[in-house]
Amino acid sequence: MRAAKGDWLLMHGSTGSESKVARVEEVLGGGDDPLYRVAFENGREAIVAPGPHARVCSRKKPRAESIRADGDYL
Question: Phi first, then psi: what are they for 64, rounded to 5°?
Fold first, then answer.
């Protein structure tokens, strides 16, 4: 997965937890699986390494309630 500053990440929670939406503020490092500094809707920031089920939604904020683990968002 590759994302750029300004993209939105859709990160699916584990069984029983909610999915999260975060905006990419900075790409840290290179390679195939870089870390990202993201900002969540509540203002909290974090460094994340998105899992295999995370998706990138470029420049348009997705609705968290529409995220499905089996969905294709690219």
Answer: -60, -35
Separation of alpha carbons 71 and 66, rounded Å: 9
**pTM confidence score:** 0.72
Closest CA to 72 of 57, 51, 61: 57
Per the listing, tokens 């690219």 go with 74
- In tens, the pLDDT along 6-57 reads 999 988 776 666 788 999 999 998 777 789 999 998 889 999 998 888 888 8
Looking at residue 33, the DSSP 8-state letter turns out to be S
Question: What DSSP line would sit under 46-70, residue for residue?
Answer: EEE---TT-EEE-SSPPPGGG--TT
Q: Which residues have C-beta within 8 Å of that of residue 12, sequence separation ≥ 6?
A: 19, 51, 53, 54, 67, 69
